[in-house]
Design brief:
InterPro entries: DUF2252 (IPR018721). This is DUF2252 domain-containing protein. It comes from Limosilactobacillus coleohominis 101-4-CHN. There is one protein chain. The protein is α+β, with helices and mostly antiparallel strands. Strand 11 and strand 12 form a beta hairpin. The chain contains 20 helices and 12 strands. The chain has helices at about 20-30, 35-40, 50-55, 65-70, 75-80, 85-90, 135-155, 160-180, 185-190, 195-205, 210-225, 230-235, 260-275, 280-285, 330-335, 340-345, 350-360, 395-415, 420-425, 430-455, and strands spanning about 100, 110-115, 120-125, 130-135, 235-240, 245, 255, 285-295, 305-315, 320-325, 370, 375-380. The chain has 2 domains: about 10-225 and about 390-455, no CATH class; about 225-380, no CATH class.
């Protein structure tokens, strides 16, 4: 399954079997690949710079120095920006080959808060650039390694981190069991609201030692309510002589585009409007475009072609949309020829949109795909009630709660795939995997440190 050329063929997860048949298949897979073997670490020894260079060949060269600055900030920042390295290394590890739709980059900072169409604040996965049909344990392993690296950065004791890693896999296993017991529609409509997390915190809070996450959550609620297009315009734009707001340049990160590029983006936006939800098509008829700017964000995607479009409503209401390049999967960059990568990349926007609507409990109504200039893109609202928890600000107890929440939501997202009962069959009575994957994650984190030092030493 992992070697197929089209890594997002949804037929792979549409197996016409009963739940019990799928569970039995998972048990058979467990017998063929025991947990001890799945958790066995196979050492890797490859130059990280070659894989990074292959990814960056598709990016904007003038932005690469800034991208590298972000990557060398810490081993965890480097890990976040180099999903291609773990993709390469996972091919050398044992794999269950149980096909589901995975996030592909499920590190702990790729979970966050976002708004439902009903304006409720939800928490869950929020990055799907690397989403594909893949192995469930690839996502779980990336979550575990990210917890190890972020925990090290926070100065937590290694024994405490080892216990935490075991709890992450235990939480994932239990959440898979829970999801398997729920009716299909209960799973489909499942969402994790802001109130769910605060109730969990309150249940665990003994008042004598309140969690730092309690304070963080209060700040997030306040910030998310202020995070909207009007706030972005206030921060990033100014009123021009033509009476329209325009983005302020801050080159090279924020830069206006050429007239040729502007016209290409307009063509892509027209294509997007044809395919987006009909109610959004009607809503957008109230707006005209005021400005477009290239604006880079994140760590892993910094350097890609990413634009902000400022639209103004007929009553003056602002709307800021992000037009984000959908690169070919880094997974594909490591295994396919350039022609195949380009062919798959042309469908990347639709892949990301489909994965987000599947793995996220309630997605942005403006979410849609388009293409222009020979590249694929997806469009969404920019920072609409979107916030994330800075894990560097958490104490150990709060960090543990956060990581276990991510593990729960990862399992619930995975269980949207019809093939997910196979995971349940594989994980039945497999408590030993908790310690096994914890040990694997610690060993792989050591590899990340080696790759990080190699990359840092190569910088001018």
């Amino acid at each position: 399954m992992e070697n197929q050329l089209d890594i997002f063929d949804l037929k792979a997860v549409q197996i016409k079997k009963s739940k019990q048949e799928l569970i039995k298949f998972g048990q058979q897979r467990q017998a063929a690949l025991p947990s001890a073997k799945l958790a066995q670490y196979s050492p890797v020894n490859s130059d990280p710079r070659k894989a990074i260079a292959k990814t960056e060949a598709n990016m904007i060269k003038e932005l690469l120095p800034l991208r590298h600055q972000r990557m060398i900030a810490s081993p965890f920042a480097f890990f976040r920006g180099t999903a291609e390295l773990m993709e390469r290394d996972l091919k050398r590890q044992s794999q269950t080959n149980i096909p589901i739709i995975i996030c592909g980059d499920a590190h702990i900072q790729n979970f966050g808060f976002y708004a439902s169409p009903e304006r409720q604040l939800l928490f869950g996965l929020n990055d799907f650039d690397e989403a594909r049909i893949g192995n469930w344990e690839s996502d779980l392993r990336r979550l575990l390694v990210s917890a190890q690296l972020a925990g090290e950065e926070n100065g937590f004791d290694q024994d405490d981190l080892h216990q935490l890693l075991k709890k992450i896999t235990k939480t994932y296993r239990h959440a898979i069991k829970r999801a398997n017991q729920e009716p299909l529609f209960d799973r489909y409509y499942f969402s994790f609201k802001y109130s769910d997390m605060t109730q969990t915190i309150q249940a665990l809070d003994h008042h004598q030692h309140p969690h730092t996450i309690h304070k963080v959550m209060k700040r997030i609620l306040k910030k998310s309510q202020q995070s909207n297009s009007a706030q972005i315009v206030k921060k990033m734009a100014q009123l021009g002589a033509d009476g329209e707001y325009h983005f302020v340049e801050n080159a090279p990160r924020a830069k206006h585009v050429s007239q040729t590029r502007y016209q290409a983006i307009l063509a892509g936006f027209r294509e997007y409007r044809k395919n987006v939800r009909p109610d959004i098509q009607i809503l957008l008829a109230n707006f005209h475009i005021s400005d477009i700017i290239r604006y880079s964000v994140g760590v892993g995607s910094f350097g890609t072609r990413c634009y902000l479009m400022l639209l103004t409503g007929n009553d003056g209401t602002p709307l800021v949309l992000q037009i984000k390049e959908a690169l070919p999967l880094r997974y594909n960059l490591q295994i396919l020829g350039s022609d195949q990568v380009v062919a798959n990349g042309q469908r990347a926007g639709r892949r990301i949109v489909t994965a987000q609507r599947t793995l996220q409990s309630s997605s942005d109504p403006f979410l849609g795909a388009t293409h222009f200039g020979g590249r694929s893109y997806y469009i969404r609202q920019y920072r609409d009630m979107k916030e994330s928890i800075k894990v560097s600000k958490l104490d150990l107890e709060s960090f543990q709660l956060y990581c276990e929440t991510c593990a729960l939501l990862l399992a619930m997202a995975h269980y949207q795939s019809p093939t997910a009962p196979i995971i349940r069959g594989y994980l039945k009575h497999q408590k030993s995997l908790d310690a096994g994957l914890a040990d694997w994650a610690i060993q792989y984190a050591n590899q990340v440190h080696q790759d990080y030092q190699c990359f840092v030493s190569s910088q001018p």
